[in-house]
Amino acid sequence: MKVTELKGQTAHLTNLNNININMGRNGAGKSRFLRDIEEMASRSKQLFYVRYVSPERAGSFKRDGNVLTNMSDNPDWLRQTRAVNQASNFKAASAMLFREAETLYLRRLASTPEIRMDPTRNFETDRLSKVNQLLTNISLEMGNADFVFRSLADGQTLSPDAISSGESEAVALASEILYFFDTIEPAKFNILLLDEPDVHLHPDLQARLGKLIIAMLDEFKNLADRIAVCLSTHSSPLVCSLADSQYVSIGTKSFAVETVELKPTSAELRKVAPFFGHPLSLSLSEDAALILEGEDDERVWQQAARTSQGRIKVFPVLAGSVDQQGELETFCVDLLGTLYDNPVAFSLRDGDGVVDQPLEHRQPIKRYRLQCYAIENVLLTDPCLAVMGTTWEGFVAAAMKWVGENPEHPDRTLITELAGSDDRLRHKKIKKIRQLVCAVLECKKPWEVVVGQAIGALRNEDLANSNMLISFLGAEMVSDVIFRNAA
């Protein structure tokens, strides 16, 4: 059911894509435009499933009995109360929806063998981790009876009323997005309308929110012809975090003009987006762009920056391939000197089996190569194993036990080879078993979180000691990028 346009009574959105960005000045009527589309689509329930997220989202992210009663008694109550710019008790409803999203995911898991039989997939890795990728100082965890917030600084639980407004916004928005995707109706055209989702969010969180939307579309790409996310925004970090995706088109809403014609993002915008969309300006925060080859690397360094509590001052920029990494390096060399007095930027490539062949720096970019095959190989270092509560000897014992219990598993041979390796397969590709390593150790954390937490826990004094993690990453890179000793 491919839909190329959406109409309200007066609003008209043309050339629809999966992610549709509606930009415009204050007073241009962007909110009215989205609500007009929502009103008309909601009247055609046989054709459309539509959800609208209002721009001012009040309340706290905690379940409320009155909200639950209203939602249960009147199926249209939530839609009616949100059809305004300022929605009261918005976040309380989001908390209810996130709990429902957990139930929906578990039902999907039970009815989908390929998910159920995969030991690396569960609600925590597929859903909860996506929420936590938006958070810097706290985490959202599964408690005994409900979800709880926990401080990453001291491990104490926090009341939903005690977290910052930005964190509360991020959790509520993530819950709304996850709920929408987990309630998609394949027989209908599904529309998510996000009205200024960047409101009250730090620029860094705005960029991460864009990546969350793209990640969910990737997960549901088999239904791409039946999904449209439409958002209005003023945020350049949010736009630029979305702009390098094939899913995205952009249009402008002008005052008194009710037709918005969407156009796919240009190759030029996609190229410059990671830099101009860098939400924390180097001149303000001392963060520097860290150009990375793949999404796995990006997630690891995002987690490392969060875990370090501000000590690691980098903003990961995703290249997507080795070739594009080279193009971004060239672009950065040409651009940064015109923007900053003393520019600093970094680029980190996979080892890919190459040993003792350092890359030449291209000032102002300092370039490094991992001293192992790829970032997932770091998972087998002692500090990462410690994050999972074990040692190398403990892993070997658990691995051999797992091999004995799974004689037909396709990855049995590689796990056996790893357990018997003298160098922990440091320079060999282990991509297909990286999450399986966590599963063998009964660690529910995504492997990227484990590696990121270990990197984020490094201290400058570790450089003077024998540290396997630093050896795999490369001592020069750790010194320059993580601790800025040469900056």
Automatic annotation (TrEMBL):
Pfam families assigned to the protein according to its UniProt record, in alphabetical order: AAA_21
Signal peptide (UniProt feature, chain positions): none
InterPro entries according to UniProt: ATPase_AAA_core (IPR003959), Bact_Antivir_Def_Nuclease (IPR051396), P-loop_NTPase (IPR027417)
A single GO molecular function term of this UniProt record: ATP binding
Annotated coiled-coil segments of the chain: none
Domain ATPase AAA-type core per the UniProt entry, residue ranges: 81-240
PANTHER family with a match to the protein in the record: ATP/GTP PHOSPHATASE, EXCINUCLEASE ATPASE SUBUNIT
Protein name: ATPase AAA-type core domain-containing protein
Annotated source species: Microvirga ossetica
UniProt lineage: Bacteria, Pseudomonadati, Pseudomonadota, Alphaproteobacteria, Hyphomicrobiales
